[in-house]
Amino acid sequence: MEYEVIQPPFTLEFRNMSREEAIRYFNWFMEQIPIRIRVLERAVQSTAGYEDWQADYTPASLEKLGQWFCEHVATRKRTEEEKETIYSKAPEWFRSVEIEDWELTNQTFSLAIDIGMYLSRVLEKNCPGLRWVMVKKPRSDADFQQPVLVGVGKPVFNPIAILVTYAYGIARRSKGPERLKELYDIWANLLVK
Questions:
Q1: Number of domains, the chain
Q2: Is the dihedral of CA 152, 153, 154, 157 positive or negative?
Q3: 6 lies in a domain?
Q4: 3-state DSSP call for residue 132?
Q5: In a domain, 9, yes or no
């Protein structure tokens, strides 16, 4: 597979970003969507058996893409130092929770970002009225200062958070290839109600 990992020029610690930095990230993110979809399309097409896959923004395209993603989610061993850092930033009660010995690879995180961007575009093309916003408050919101898609309803769709969670599910073997299309169906319904 030919693939270029995304390199955001930001810390991605959204709660610690100034508002100006968050706005710069939002603008950078929006500019990256068409670029990263092209990178994703080339990566998928460079894989044997997927040469004919097209980023055509149809819900049906998500079925084959979900299969491809499942074949490319990878993990690496988590270091003791990484575990200690997680514990040091966590509340006291969390310190008794056992942290898994593995983490997703940087390439997998990058693929999750790219596929999240693509899934967002599929939603936008097929569900009129969706728009991108940056969550500005409250600071405690899980999506604080991140780009999200909104529609007429209350739910917000954070494509990166959703796809990273899906990648963890694939790595744990609790989610399969059909989940990507299911995510589209779920969110297409939630965002237009």
A1: 1
A2: negative
A3: no
A4: strand
A5: no
Sequence-distant (6+) residues with CB within 8 A of 33 are: 117, 120, 121
Is residue 103 predicted with pLDDT exceeding 90?
A: yes
149-156: long-range contacts at Cβ-Cβ below 8 A with a sequence spacing of 24 or more? 149/120, 149/123, 149/124, 149/191, 150/191, 151/127, 151/190, 151/191, 151/192, 151/193, 152/191, 152/192, 152/193, 153/190, 153/191, 153/192, 153/193, 155/187, 155/190, 155/191
Q: Which of 84-93, 96-105, 113-122 has the highest mean pLDDT?
A: 113-122
Question: Rounded to whole angstroms, what are the CA distances from 44 to 51, 64, 187, 188?
Answer: 7, 10, 24, 24
Q: Is residue 61 part of a domain?
A: yes
pLDDT in tens, 112-151: 999 999 999 999 999 999 999 999 888 888 999 999 999 9
Instruction: For the chain, give the longest Cα–Cα distance.
Output: 51
Q: What does the block give as tokens for 184?
A: 């589209």
Residue 193 reports pLDDT greater than 80: no
Mean local confidence (pLDDT), 1-23: 87
* Integer-rounded Cα radius of gyration of the chain: 17
φ, ψ dihedrals at 70, nearest 5°? -60, -30
| Residue 104 pLDDT > 90 | yes
For 138, the token pair is: 């409250």
With cut-offs at 50, 70 and 90, classify the pLDDT of residue 12. Answer: confident
Domain carrying residue 105: 16-192
- Is 136 inside any structural domain? yes
